Amino acid sequence: MDEKAPPGRLPERERPWVMRTYAGHSSATASNALFRRNLAKGQTGLSVAFDLPTQTGYDPDHELAAGEVGRVGVPVAHLGDMRALFEGIPLAEMNTSMTINAPAMWLLALYGTVGAEQGAELARCAGTTQNDIIKEYLSRGTYIFPPAASLRLTADVIAYTLREMPRWNPVNICSYHLQEAGATPVQEVGFALATAVAVLDAVRDAGQVPAERMGDVVARISFFVNSGVRFVEEIAKMRAFGALWDEITRERYGVTDPKQRRFRYGVQVNSLGLTEAQPENNIQRIVLEMLGVTLSRDARARAVQLPAWNEALGLPRPWDQQWSLRMQQVLAYESDLLEYPDLFAGSHVMTALVDGIVTGARAELDKVLEMGGVVAAVETGYLKSALVGSLAERRRRLEVGTDVVVGVNRFTETEPSPLTAAGAEAIEQVDPAVEAAAVASVREWRSGRDGAAVDAALDRLRADAATTANLMPATLACVRAEVTTGEWAGALRQVLGEYRAPTGLAGATTGVGGGSGLAAVRERVAITARELGSGRLRLLVGKPGLDGHSNGAEQIAVRARDAGFEVIYQGIRLTAGQIVAAAVEEDVDLVGLSVLSGSHLDAVPAVLDGLRAAGRGDLPVVVGGIIPPGDAETLRAAGVARVFTPKDFALTDIIDDLVTVVRSANGL
Questions:
Q1: Residue 659: its pLDDT value, please?
Q2: Which intervals hold domain B12-binding (predicted)?
């Protein structure tokens, strides 16, 4: 560092945070090649995206996996896939983050086994399993088991890693997805800390960890947060997070070592805030959001992964991910950010912002604890309803123009973008043959095993699940017996049961959006219902396949209900057959399908075919999701009445168009 540098600089320039890109698709072999390329470009950690069948505990040949294999991440169905995923990557030297929740125990067992096969000492392996199941009930939807059973699995993983993998972060408490689901900064902090309390209470009460080691447990709890474009507010949010975490771990759990109480977090900046319209604007959004978690030294992220500019269009290409990595590298290595102490110490503005978030978040946390904790708040629907209501209010501000999104609701005039001139070539394309190859692979894997060893391992897993035993030893035995992901999860489903989370619609505030146009749409709905001779128009909102991102579907459902529709919404993860059966049984006037995972070309035709087979080919179907223009044309040619994408942000206009679809389908 320059000896003549002005006073106030740090004695030595700080080391940068861990730099990651969230990556994985198609197959373990293809993802391995992508990982190697990213590491060669200067990425300092891996962040593994698993596909939806893996995340929800299904093998590639399961009915619900159809169309989903390898689309939003890499399929890992067994030990052989995990070996291929990390071929030639020394796990003892790597810091690996795995975005996996319900089957986190299973994927950690696979990862640890591959590490041991490479000769790595488990005690040296560093990384993170996300393993926060609570937010899955509220946002992402990749849960399997009921909340209490899921917390038991999390506690088992924590106890295991404390003994065997002390450098591993066994859980990553996620506020990221809460913000995507509508949370205000106060709700994001309060609800995430309520989850952290539930996890720590579960560990303490399970009796697997001595009381004197709770400080070691706290020291390995990490957080995964979202950073939005209001970056000053985001800085305050992170400082508030740190202050409250220090308070909770000191007062509730008696942790006396300040280092163990340190708030440790990684970040992905706001992917759902990226826009399909004028996608080049996403570059500056990503940079500003990165600043929100890096500018404040006292609340700086320990790891950062940035989305790519074109994620609102589809799957990013390697070049797009490289661009996002270079943003981090320019900030860390070209700027002087890492040469100074905290830039906001003593700021009256920042102190006031932080104090406001701390006060509000503490009140939210206390409210959840008074309800009996976060599990009760999930099961009663309180948390989901609060998020649906907050997101509805956020959408209202967008629609009336209080909140400005450049290129979407203001400054919409634009020149053609050279970035998207290539059309479909502007995003990564997943070869349809990937799914067939994965199906063949898992069947070949099953045929080459010792069937008796598989049965014995699964019997042990079921037996242990029926007790309070730690399930990690039985899970490791399943890995060694070459059990598959679907078999492991299926055995636990038999004992622990499955769960369907509340949709949050019943408790969501109505009538908060739509502006003056909603009254006119409500009148059109009423007139159309009278002309059809029905009491009310009936809309079925369906989520086919394994896509659990339900925020958009829920907002459509709320606004349609406000406009006078009777809405039937049964939640996420439905087969085409279930959606068709509901449409026929409920005698609906319109079916709306929401698909954000890229499986629309498989999921939507399956519903259309099912309706025709059921004698309801006349029933209009509309689709919403991240759907490229070429795919939209294909869906319309197949019989879809309308295709809505993220650029269609005005919910009342969408509902008005739905009325037009119903009228047209009925010759009105």
A1: 97
A2: 536-665
